[in-house]
Amino acid sequence: MSYVKRIREKVGQETLLLPGSAVILHTPDGEILLQKREDGDWGLPGGLMEPGESYEDTAVREVKEETGVTLRKQELQLYNVFSGEDYFVEAPNGDPYYAVTALYTCADPAQPLSDGDEETLELRYFPLTALPEKLRRSHRYFLGLFAENEAGYKRG
User: Fold this and answer.
1) CB of 42 within 8 A of CB of 59?
2) Mean per-residue pLDDT for 83-97?
3) In the chain, where are the structural domains located?
4) CATH architecture, domain 25-155
5) What family is it from (predicted)?
6) 128-137 residue pLDDT tens
7) SS3 of 149, please?
8) Is the pLDDT of residue 153 over 60?
């Protein structure tokens, strides 16, 4: 049983602060790996931290579980940490929480993708200019920032 499920058993639907990580895996052509989740929304690979993990550990574990891709911590580049009122989430079951998300970028290591885990319906690469309609709000924001940053690097 996951840490969050154990906590939920004790606190019910009390609003929690939950740390986690997400990873922008990008190809040299600027495509981004996205995961279609069980709720039908697309999002970046990532998830919530387990006790004893660092943000990097969480990113590596979640990417492996959800995509089959093995990353090394030293391949991750911290992009930013996001928290606050804008990161309030209500889980599909109604559980409320504020996400504290460490966002990493990583050059895609060109490994074969797995079928993912029980949370993953599909894995697919998308150009930043053609992201899916049903993309998690926070992940759309993250990718918008990333696209702006990438455009600045390519111009400069």
Assistant:
1) no
2) 92
3) 25-155
4) Alpha-Beta Complex (3.90)
5) Belongs to the Nudix hydrolase family.
6) 999 999 999 9
7) helix
8) no
